[in-house]
Amino acid sequence: QVQLVQSGGGLVQSGGSLRLSCAASGFSVDNFDIGWFRQGAGKDRERIACISHQGGGSSYLSSVNGRFTISRDTAKNTVYLQMNNLKTEDTAVYYCGASAFCGGYVQEVIHWGQGTQVTVSS
Length: 122
Known about the structure:
Layout: E1 3-7, E2 10-13, E3 18-25, E4 33-39, E5 46-51, E6 58-60, E7 68-73, E8 78-83, E9 92-99, E10 111-112, E11 116-121
Parallel strand pairs: 2-11
Antiparallel strand pairs: 1-3, 3-8, 4-5, 4-9, 5-6, 7-8, 9-10, 9-11
């Protein structure tokens, strides 16, 4: 069965850190670009980080660049998102998604994780 299973998330104070995990089954993270997305209340889902399966290069939304780090563990078939110096505006539901390439539209994501809530309090 092809799926992405997320873990991590929760409630953290402003300035704190969290790590999200996205474990793939039924396919290899080496064959897809894996992105992290978030959707705040009343907002569209946006890609905030992505790691390419070709060369492992990563890209970030400017608002998280320097605070968030995406990484991939091929042996565990898992992609992570380390989030540091969290801000209240980072509060959202976070999703991981697999797509053909990082530069595609959100609608082109092939497989989605189930989503996890991240709440940052002031």
